[in-house]
Amino acid sequence: MTGVVNLLREKLGEMAPRHGIILGSGLGTLVSALRNPVRMAYADLPGFPVSAVSGHAGELVAGYLGDVPVIMLSGRVHYYEKGDANAMRLPIEALLGLGVQSLILTNSAGSLRDDMPPGSVMEITDHINYSGMNPLVGEESDRRFVGMTNAYDKDLSARMRLAAEKLGIALSQGVYMWFSGPSFETPAEIRMARILGADAVGMSTVPEVILARLFGLRVVAASVITNYGAGMTGSELTHEETKDMAPVGGARLAAILKEMIAGGGNDSE
Asked: How far is CA 192 from CA 67, 183, 187, in A?
């Protein structure tokens, strides 16, 4: 891990980002908003996992949002690709090694609420790990017993909501349920998820939250809603629908994150 951190430090020069962002589908407009971007493909970073999922760029991009230095992981590796819940450990640990203190996670998700249609944005206030998988399985020290009561940082959440309010963008709040994927959920599973208190379902993010908390990073997360859950409309779900709808909500979430990070000027949190 030291080798990749040293390589990144050499590439970044004097840039010292304190905010890290993992980008799901549809957040390309946020990358394009960076000033003086420095780009590195995951394939060129020793040990970084390379995703084979269409719609995930697979590159690290650092630059400035306003006057604030940030570092973005454009694309992620999912559990369902190789059955590894720990797949994003090295990239997150590398961000920590660079001095990142807060991690912003984004994803695309299916809505379980009629009042949260495709194109909406939902702040994740809590999650349900329905997959049963955990990236800390095999961790050999007592560090593995990570508390998750305050997994999502209240101050960062308040800043996200304030940014959305300032921009006049509706920002829902809700619970995200992680299914392992890659197949979509069944209508029966969606009915169960609603009974258990979930507001959205997806195939990522939860392992990254657990890893971030292991490393002591502050976390805030949001979902771009790309579809309704299975059985809610009668239509079959497809990955193409996800890719088509992600840019709609993605543009809204990108605006919120830009205001949240850059709107307050230089922020070293």
From this structure: 45, 17, 9
84 part of a folded domain: yes
Within the chain, where are the H helices?
2-12, 28-32, 79-82, 89-97, 154-167, 187-196, 206-214, 239-262
Lookup result for tokens 């559990």 = 79
| Pairwise CA distance, residues 150 & 119, whole Å | 28
What pLDDT shows up at residue 54? 55
Is residue 99 helix, strand or coil? coil
Q: Does residue 253 sit within a domain?
A: yes
Give the structural domain span for 95: 2-262
| Domains: count for the chain | 1
Mean pLDDT of the chain: 92
The pLDDT assigned to 55 comes to: 53
Identify the pLDDT of residue 266.
45
Identify any residues that bridge with 62 across adjacent strands, giving them in sequence order.
38, 71
What is the sign of the dihedral through the CA atoms of 197, 200, 206 and 208?
A: negative
Place of tokens 């690290």: 60
- Sequence letter at residue 42: Y
In a domain, 268, yes or no: no
pLDDT digits (tens, 9 = 90+) for 181-215: 999 999 999 999 999 999 999 999 999 999 999 99
- Interhelix angle 2-12/89-97, rounded to 10 degrees, is 60
Residue 224 sits in a domain whose CATH number is 3.40.50.1580
Query: pLDDT per residue over 70-83, tens digit each?
Result: 999 998 999 999 99
Residue 118 placed within a domain = yes
